[in-house]
Amino acid sequence: MALRCAITGDVPKVAVISPKSGAVFEKTVIEKHVASAGTDPINDEPLDVSELIQIQAPEFNVPRAPAATSLPSLLKTFQDEWDAAMLETFELKRENHKLTQELTQSLYQHDAATRVIARLIKERDQARQALESLQASGVAPANNAAPAAQSEAMDASSDESASGLSPEVVARIDQTFAQLSQARRKREKNPEGLATPEQIGTYKQQEVIKGVHSSRSGNIHSLSYRASDNMLLTSSSDKTAALYNLESKEVVAHYKGHGKKVLDARLHPTADVAVTGSADNHVKIWTASTGENVATLEMHSQAVNNVNIHPEGQLVVSCSDDGSWAVSDIATQSNITLVNDAKAKSIKALRVHPDGAILGAGNESSTVGIWDIRTAKCEASFEGHGGAVTSLAFSENGYHMATGGIDSTVRFWDLRKLNAFHTLEFDAGHEVNSVAFDHSGQYCAVGGSDVRVYMVKKWSELVKLEEHKKAVAGVAWAPNAQSIFSAGADSVIMQHGF
């Protein structure tokens, strides 16, 4: 089989091979191309004439160039022009092939963009329908509140026009809300084994736990208790969180990785997961039992004050000094949405309602906003504190909320009537850092300058616990109010019971 030039398609007189592509060329043709382009015409790799390898063939004596007017000279001229035409045709074919590929790619991109736009329009329409549905039958209707309160609630909206949650996430929240709200209607108001007011009045110190955090810089900022395995999770100024086993009386894991003090830490109620928020602006997800950092979420631009594990089980809700609250996904370890409160420079306290549809957010300007998580809309706004709101808790009955502030008060709100129905007032300078309802909703603990327990509705002080040497930052209830845990700036965890 005769060799043919890869450019002209003719049998070459002097055949050479390119080491870059392995193709055969007529020597004169390839030399012209290399002189003009400097590349191999097949794959565009750099090529020099000196790299060409000549194929051995019988030698022919090339006659001297005849005069320009001779027939051989004309034939040579025609040959040169033919070679040039073939070279140009080859280049045009190559360029045409490239353009065809680029056009195909552009068409695919256009089709993908069209599909994305169509999906976003569909999600927008679904979000609007969800908002209309919420306004028709959502949390406490604004019609029951004073006109001024209604106006404030509608004004305190997010900077975003939609929540940013996908229809799938919204559906999960809706399903959780439906299940939990229905179960709440059937719950017992006085569960068997619930401690009586008289028993709570006899609370005494049962456990004193020291050494979980550094004694020098280990101020404890939060306390989370999981009854299923009797575990306590604390966060501290020593830049760590710690998991303590009350059965074995030992620290199971230290969570190290934050660059500044850890302001809040929460245990997942059923999974081996813990979540922390820190002054380094980050939210971290951990394997609870080992202290392994699974993911770091960077949603906020300032300190993260509170983190919450949503009742749905796969979502984390956090708030920050940058005036925003955010939703993240534990399973995908990713951020979902960030909502800015236009009226708050800083959100100091945030808790998700036990049913999962709404959250309460207390800010530095004394206001508490009730937000619908699914639409990122502020549905109600409560005012009454004389300064920043430092703590917040929802009752398991579903319609009571307690808030504590730097004005040394704890206020109790009715989510059905959108008003405050009772206020606990303490002496000036008395710290209120943590409020917590027990699971029955009949008792409320207040942690600050000391720990006090009140009976809801009667508002009688059942017990005052003053063993902590410094301010208490976190309180948590054991099942049926059999005991209460507290921790604070003295780096000590205490358990009181009867």
UniProtKB/TrEMBL annotation:
Cellular localisation: Nucleus
Catalysed reactions listed for this entry: S-ubiquitinyl-[E2 ubiquitin-conjugating enzyme]-L-cysteine + [acceptor protein]-L-lysine = [E2 ubiquitin-conjugating enzyme]-L-cysteine + N(6)-ubiquitinyl-[acceptor protein]-L-lysine
Key word Ribonucleoprotein present: no
Record bears the keyword DNA repair: yes
GO cellular component, one term: U2-type catalytic step 1 spliceosome
Biased composition (Low complexity): 140-163
Residue ranges annotated for the U-box domain, each copy included: 1-76
Annotated EC: 2.3.2.27
Gene Ontology biological-process entries: DNA repair; mRNA splicing, via spliceosome; protein K63-linked ubiquitination
Pfam families per UniProt: Prp19, U-box, WD40_Prp19
Free-text function comment from the UniProt entry: Ubiquitin-protein ligase which is mainly involved pre-mRNA splicing and DNA repair. Required for pre-mRNA splicing as component of the spliceosome.
Assigned protein family: Belongs to the WD repeat PRP19 family.
Protein name: Pre-mRNA-processing factor 19
